Structure formats: structure tokens, C-alpha cells
Amino acid sequence: HSFPTRRSSDLNNLGQVVGTDIFNQPFLYQNGSFQHITIPLPGFGAQPTPAGINDHGAIAGTYNDLFSGQLGFLDQNGTVTTIVPPGTPSYGFTYITGVNNSGEVVGYSPAGFAFIYQNGAFTTFRAPNAPLTEFFGINNNGEVVGNYSDDTGNHAFLYNNGSLSFIDVPGSAFTRPLGINDADEIVGYYTPSTVGGGQDAYLDNNGVFTTFTYLGADKSQLVGINDAGEATGNFQDQFGDSYAFVQDLGVPVATPEPASASLLISGLAALLANGVRRCSRNHRTTGTATPSPNR
């Protein structure tokens, strides 16, 4: 299904999707219907942007406060915790990108480090020799996907217990992973290395890539995937209009027929141009890194 003028951020194993509409109001989509959600944030003039939702209905994201800048939050059934990592200036910016069922919240700081927050404690991480490290998604096993940049370029990775596995869509100039489920299926977007290649969505199933080109879309991305293989994402058409969508990728997804990965968009036919592209090159090389706890 597609939802015009809305932007999705994540979905959980119940099929609930969170995001924002054209007026930057947060919404929850489930069972075919939308509802605006209210998050009881502290501060003055707070405007929330949901980034993740877990199976308990806890929502994590960011909000802007007139006097404090951009802060993170975790809303657990109406109990809201403000999240600001150590080292953040008094008027600074915090980016929250996901939450799992254990209440682990991931994000990053413009100070250059990524972090995992849980129950008042932060574990920060910066990749070696990297001025900027970002976490974008976390599964219920505590595995995290993200990016870091250094003198050699930008690198996508899967982080697990101090080990980094690097992710690169074959033939891409840039890869960004945004979501991961408990089967280590990763979704995101990439920029093809060809000139004028745009931005396309991808699924990485343990080293087997499925890339998606949507007819009429100038840019596309998958931002979250649940354990049933349902994904949510966004695309922008040639006129600059944005659409959120939910797509059933199917399980398993390593070698599906193109029809099983078709996009379900009401009123728009033939959305998949040239079907789906599949590559099987092993993409993950490993390294080690050590996180640093801050409490």
C-alpha cells in the first residue's frame, strides 16, 4: 500500500508503522488505517518525529525544543524519557534512529559518535579514525547497522559485539543500511556508481542482494523490515511528491520470484520497473572495534 504525502520511519512485528505526514504530525498506521498520535513531551514548542517502534508499542525519536535544540525521546506507554548523550552542547542536536524490544535505543551525535541507550546508560561507539559514526537500526539481538566515514570514504556496516561486518551493494558508489530484523535481513538504499543513477532501495539477505527500481520514482529507500519480511519505505516521484509504502518482501527472500517482491500500491500499477535485480556476491568483510561505555 502507498500513502501520499507521508513519510514512514519504521514498522514492528505487529505491522504497525510510524512516521510523519505532510504537516510533520506523527502518525501510526495499522490494519489499513491511520491515526495521529500524541507524545507527551516536555519543553516548550516540542514537535516530535518518530524514528522507531518496537513490538510493545514503545516509540523512539527526536523532538525540537525552542530552548534546548533537538533532543531524543523514548515513549513507553505515555511515560517519556528524554535522551541526550554525553558531550552534547547545551543547545545541540541528538539523532535517534531506532528501538528494539529490550528498550535499547540507537542514534548518533554530531560530535561524531554513535550510541546505544538503555535505562539511563549510554554505550558510545566511534569507528577507528572516523570523524563521524552513525547508528541507524537495531534488532532484538542487539545487532546494529550504520555508517561511518574516514579518509577512504563512507562505509556501511553491521555492528555486533565489537565486530564490524562491512556492507556494500555490488556496483554502488554509496550504501546506507537503515533497518535490520532478527534474521539479519538488512534494508536501506544505495547510489549506483553509474552517472545519474539516482537512489534505489535494497534488501540484503545474508550477502544476497535484491535491489528495487520503482517506476516513476526518482529516489527510493526501505527504512525498516520486520521478522515476517514486511518492509516499509519511501519514494519520491519525478515531481518531488513523496509517498510512504508497505511492501511484503516474503520469507525467505534470498531467491524469490520477482512477483513475490512486488510492491503493493493501491491505484498504481506496474510499479516495479524491470522486476527486481539480484546479486549474490559476498559483501561482508569483518573487522574489530571496541565500544566505550559512558554511565
Short description:
This protein has 295 residues and is mainly β. The chain has no helices and 28 strands. Helix content is 0%, strand content 56%.
Identify the overall geometry: globular
* Gap from first CA to last CA: 43 Å
The level of helicity is under 10%
Chain-averaged pLDDT: 83
Q: Main β-sheet, in a few words? A: 5 strands, mixed
Number of helix segments? Answer: 0
Q: Which residues form runs of ≥5 with pLDDT under 50?
A: 252-295
Indicate the radius of gyration in whole angstroms: 18 Å
Kindly describe this structure.
The chain is mainly β and 295 residues long. It is built from no helices and 28 strands. Helix content is 0%, strand content 56%. Strands 6, 7, 8, 9 and 10 form a 5-stranded mixed β-sheet that branches. A 5-stranded antiparallel β-sheet has the order 11-12-13-14-28, with no helix packed on it. Strands 15-16-17-18-27 form a 5-stranded antiparallel β-sheet, with no helix packed on it. It starts with a strand and ends with a strand. The C terminus is likely disordered.
